[in-house]
Write a structure and sequence with these properties.
The chain has about 140 residues and is α+β, with helices and mostly antiparallel strands. A 6-stranded mixed beta sheet has the order 1-2-3-4-5-6, with helices on one face. About 30% of the residues lie in helices and about 20% in strands. It is globular, with a radius of gyration of 18 Å.
Length: about 140
């Protein structure tokens, strides 16, 4: 082990997306939207506005509708709950008809998607708010867990 990384392992971006970028490829418009509350700090979703399809990858974690891992078993970075909420709200505001996640089949139906994203957002907010309230009340970490 050791030595420099091979050239192909060195990241080189020829296009960076800070918050959003709209592209037109042929007849298709797509929007790249930053969602830094996803599993990586450079997470983004791809929004196809004419089709009302959102490709989210693992923005919401490996299983859609489940509480995301705020700290992974592999020791990955901590995910900030408020940033997760902002990312959920960003996708929710799109009102997608179809959601394509990083695992399993598509999730179809604007009402179902909105209900699941609302439930997920509220659950993350509850965990955040109750944890902060407990910390402010002087509860120890074991009690908070």
């Amino acid at each position: 082990m050791g030595g420099p990384l091979p050239a192909q392992a060195q990241g080189t971006a020829d296009l960076e997306v800070d918050d959003s970028l709209t592209l037109t490829v042929g007849d298709r418009t797509m929007e790249l939207l930053a969602t830094p509350g996803g599993e990586t700090t450079d997470s983004l979703v791809v929004w196809l506005p004419e089709e009302r399809i959102c490709l989210t990858g693992n923005t919401f974690g490996p299983l859609f509708g489940h509480i995301p891992n705020f700290v992974t078993m592999r020791g990955d970075r901590y995910r900030d709950a408020l940033t997760v909420i902002a990312s959920i709200d960003r996708v929710r505001a799109l009102r997608p008809e179809l959601l394509l996640t990083g695992h399993f089949g598509p999730i179809a139906g604007a009402e179902l998607i909105d209900a699941e994203l609302t439930r997920l957002r509220n659950a993350v907010a509850y965990i955040h708010d109750e944890t902060v309230a407990g910390m402010n009340a002087g509860k120890d970490v074991r009690t908070l867990m």
